[in-house]
From TrEMBL:
Protein name: Helix-turn-helix domain-containing protein
Chain segments carrying region Disordered: 114-137
The organism's place on the tree of life at top rank: Bacteria
Length: 153
């Protein structure tokens, strides 16, 4: 809010025009990652995941040498129009639902795969036990007649 005394109308108009011009130019500045997280209400983990998936589109990278650090820091920046579009369409909520469905499907698939593996292990163990029994039966005399009576079933 810009306030000035009523007698300074000329100064007010000058300052108002300067502020308007600066605000128009602000739309051309890229949006920083921390600002994206604040605007969209997302975590840095979600930002990284959605960038990797191509949902959040980077406008490029910036490299900054900060005081007190030996290395320069490189990070992605975003266009204000893209962030505004994502916010207007409430895409973070949609993406979270899609991610939750994908996680659920992956867990279901992993459980089915584990159950199949356990079944294979049981079958392999029973085959091993059967082959051991066959080896023992080969060593005993008269085993075929004893097995034929069906007492072990």
């Amino acid at each position: 809010m810009l306030r000035m005394p009523a007698e300074d109308r000329d100064q007010f108009a000058l300052h108002s025009a300067t502020v308007t011009r600066l605000l128009e130019g602000i739309a051309a500045y890229p949006v920083l990652p921390s600002e994206v997280e604040d605007i969209l209400g997302i975590t840095s983990r979600e930002r990284h995941k959605w960038m990797k998936a191509g949902r959040l589109q980077s406008a490029g990278t910036r490299t900054v040498k900060m005081r007190g650090r030996a290395k320069a820091v490189t990070f992605h920046v975003f266009t204000p129009q893209h962030i505004e579009d994502v916010l207007d369409r409430d895409l973070p909520a949609v993406w979270r639902e899609e991610d939750a469905a994908a996680i659920s499907e992956n867990r279901r698939r992993a459980a089915a795969k584990a159950q199949l593996a356990r079944g294979r292990q049981k079958a392999a163990k029973s085959d091993e036990a059967t082959s051991e029994d066959d080896d023992l039966s080969a060593e005993l005399d008269g085993w075929e007649s004893f097995a034929a009576t069906g007492l072990l079933r």
